[in-house]
Amino acid sequence: MPEPNRTDFDARAETWDDAQKVSRAEDVAAAMRRAVPMSPTMRALEYGAGTGLLSFCLRDALGPITLADSSAGMRAVAERKIAAAQARQLRVIDLDLMRDPVPAERYDLIFSMMTLHHVADVPRVFAALHSMLGPGGRVCLADLDAEDGSFHGPGVEVHHGFERATVRTWLAAAGFAEVVVGDCCRIEHHGQRYSVFLAVAQNA
Ligand SMILES: C[S@@+](CC[C@H](N)C(=O)[O-])C[C@H]1O[C@@H](n2cnc3c(N)ncnc32)[C@H](O)[C@@H]1O
């Protein structure tokens, strides 16, 4: 799969936040709260954070959160929202694990929403995320179940969702233990409903 079109996310950043995406973030946050323990002492990273919708939903439950994204436009919007909310526990970094070395920081929780299907080499990113976790740290990864390609439409180079068994296999191969891939929520898009899974796994 070719590299995703970063410019597209740059162009969409200013109008990214809408009622549907806020509601999606709230649903994923609720599923994460049910799935993993959270505390204000936990250091977290959101990978492919976009404008930070999910991190904003979870910030009351966690300690410092790093919002990582490869799109300069998305990062600029996230920075502006953080400044407006005076959300000092949130910071934004430029990170693309397909391009950059694995950062030295270690986290207790790494989460992601609707980003993996834009990543060309998902097993490579899983291995990087695994090495960014401290002992006992967890990942929570929400993305589309396998779909027929209608979510993005023709000509868009993305994964058409994922088979849950494949996600389980990739996470185990990256070194994760306690891998569970369960139901997260549903997304309405172009008049169709798509199911979203939540994969939870632990650094053994
Ligand atoms: C569909 S958007 C989801 C944004 C946000 N998680 C949300 O649900 O509102 C995918 C995000 O992943 C980012 N992204 C795509 N490929 C990436 C990569 N290789 N590394 C980091 N971020 C990436 C994009 O810039 C974009 O912000």
Core attributes:
204 residues, alpha/beta, Rossmann fold, seven-stranded mixed beta sheet, 29% strand, globular, binds S-adenosylmethionine
Task: Provide an overview of this structure.
The chain has 204 residues and is an alpha/beta fold. The protein has helices spanning 6-12, 19-35, 53-58, 72-85, 122-131, 164-173; strands at residues 44-47, 65-69, 90-94, 107-113, 133-144, 176-189, 192-203. A seven-stranded mixed β-sheet has the order 3-2-1-4-5-7-6, with helices on both faces. The mean pLDDT is 95. The protein binds S-adenosylmethionine. Residues 4, 9, 21, 48-50, 53-54, 69-71, 74, 95-98, 113-115, 118-119 line the site of S-adenosylmethionine (SAM).
How is the topology of this model organized?
Elements: H1 6-12, H2 19-35, E1 44-47, H3 53-58, E2 65-69, H4 72-85, E3 90-94, E4 107-113, H5 122-131, E5 133-144, H6 164-173, E6 176-189, E7 192-203
Parallel strand pairs: 1-2, 1-4, 2-3, 4-5
Antiparallel strand pairs: 5-7, 6-7
The structure holds S-adenosylmethionine (SAM).
